[in-house]
Amino acid sequence: MSKNKKYKFTFIDLFAGIGGFHLSMESVGGKCVFASEIDKFARQTYEANYKQSSPEIFDNGNFNEDITDENLKYEDIPEFDILCGGFPCQPFSHAGLKKGFGDTRGTLFFNIQEIVHSKIKANQKDKSISVPKILLLENVKGFKNHDKGNTFKTIKNVLDDLGYDMNAEVLNSKHFGVPQNRERIFMVAWNRDLIKVEKFNFPFGIDNDGKVIFDKEKREQLAKEVKVGDILLKKEELELLEKEANKTYTISERLWAGHQRRRVEHANKGNGFGFSSFNENSPYTSTISARYYKDGSEILIEQNHIEGRPNRPRKLHPIEAARLQGYPIDNGFIIPVSDNQAYKQFGNSVSVPVVKTIAQEIIKQLL
Ligand SMILES: C[S@@+](CC[C@H](N)C(=O)[O-])C[C@H]1O[C@@H](n2cnc3c(N)ncnc32)[C@H](O)[C@@H]1O
Prior knowledge:
This protein is α/β, with parallel strands linked by helices. The chain is built from 12 helices and 11 strands. The strands form 3 sheets. Strands 3-2-1-4-5-7-6 form a 7-stranded mixed β-sheet, with helices on both faces. A two-stranded antiparallel ribbon has the order 8-9. Strands 10-11 form a two-stranded parallel sheet.
């Protein structure tokens, strides 16, 4: 969005990563007034992609590094309508240590609470300062059941005390036009004094005509048909990129042997772990995670049927990882970092089409 174009609402982007929320909110007329991201490399990607559209946040000291920084006074954060935040999920995910609120990363939710609270307090003193209208939060699917549901209950209660009603749903990226099986919980909260609605109707997918699916039971049947081939580079494109970078995305003989050995070991033990491989006809891949750079085992692309390619599978190219998360990599999105950092960033991110669809509904139903 150009600098001078009129915007419909303002938002802040917390735990911003590479800006999945930023892109989505901007696409429905939002203007970012503050962002926060601690990771040096994610900050590079963020700046490379949003400096042109949102120069103010970079020029005016509103691209914060650490949201817990004592020098950051929450009352100095510019006023905003919507708070977006996929707060760090390690403490809540099965892969993490399940520490929840006992871990500082789990307590980062309370920084969200404090930011909203500081704006409410400011409004009580000076009515010209606005109160945040909406919060859009994201976390791993297991978040709702963490600590027997107590973590989720705590968050709902905190929001309730602040004056916000909240609805939550687990959505799957594969129903939103990207071939990835990625289930994430989305929480939409609205200030009940400012917005008089009973509930937020979550979008559950997009159909072949681009229409939103609201019937959860029908999403499997109605969702736009996609396949892994939609995000893959053509053989010649991949070969050119490999040649230019002087590297290959095909996994080594040794790694492939290790993956196959572990699969047999796991199968013998009766569990389903091990590598997962896909080809262009697969309906979706498994979830890309921040650990993808390690050995790529969660998503390998089969090559044994492609003439001229090695007989072992390959990892995704970062361009493919970007497409798998719905980033506009073919329309100007820039990856200024190494492949490993890029995998980490796309693995940590939200799927853009999911958040775009939620954002559209937030505008329609709540703003
Ligand atoms: C799950 S990722 C969110 C990704 C983001 N939603 C996106 O679309 O790319 C969480 C992010 O929070 C960042 N983070 C963790 N602690 C932070 C802190 N104290 N202050 C600011 N950012 C932090 C991490 O570096 C990570 O990029």
